[in-house]
Amino acid sequence: MIKILLLVPLFFFSTFEVVSRPLSGIVDPYFMTFFRFFSGGLFLLFFSKFNFSKKDFLLIFLIGNINVILSMTLLQLAVFLSNASTTAVLISTNPIFVSLFSLIILNKTFDKRKLLGIIIGLIGISFFVFDNLSGSNFFLGSLFALGASLSFGLYTILIRKFTQKYNPISVTCVSTFFPSLVYLFILYISNNLHIPYSESLISWARMLYIGIGVTGIAYYIYFKVGKIIGQAEASRLFYLKPVLAGILSVLLLGESFTLLDIVGTGIILFSLIL
């Protein structure tokens, strides 16, 4: 029965692109990224215990910057430039890059099935990139989504030993909340801090949903359930994210899948299952 709770983070994760897309051209994507991790990290702060060594705290903080400043900025830009369904599928390919970085950084060896999954996944990705060649913004958005997926895969590998050593919720808090303060500082000194004072309550509600819901509540439940049933088992919910996100994009945003998108999604899902 505890696995049913995973439907909550699955829903939150799958709605990120759908909720973000309407903010395109309204809210600055850099402020959106900062606000997401500041509010989500602040939520997790109430459930965290800081029993880290100084060295580990610093390393977790530095690794968190890869995710917050690099990966999630690329993801937010991808959502704004491309469509929600394409971005959702491409960011869900991160397990493929996790496997590649495990091979490169951790010197892990894979059986033929795992290697086949990586190759098939890369083929599936090529369908999306090829399909978006005709539109410059969509093509750039696809590249940003792939960059987000690749850098998130790197973050996942580097942060893994700390989530195994410490409470995962506390690690996530340190790797989100404190890098968001660095993000704020960078935006301020570069004169790119554009706070949407005049935006409607609906826009602010969307941002709070993404911050507290997708980044706070979803990760809290995800790690809590993962601690009981095992993180590997809990992570299987990511296989369903592109499917649910695609359906929501069609129903709520009126997006449509091309034949290449459908084929690419099927290939990627098959590679992830492998």
Can you walk through the features of this model?
By secondary structure, this protein is mainly alpha-helical. The chain contains 13 helices and no strands. Helix 2 packs across helix 10 (201-229). The radius of gyration is 18 Å and the shape is globular.
Task: Throw out a few tags for this protein.
single chain; 274 residues; mainly alpha
Q: Which whole number gives the mean pLDDT?
A: 82
Radius of gyration: 18 Å
General form: globular
Q: Would you tell me the structural class of the helices and strands?
A: mainly alpha
What is the gist of this entry?
The protein has 274 residues and is an all-alpha fold.
SSE topology sketch:
Elements: H1 7-20, H2 29-45, H3 54-81, H4 84-91, H5 94-105, H6 112-131, H7 136-165, H8 168-174, H9 177-189, H10 201-229, H11 231-234, H12 241-253, H13 259-273
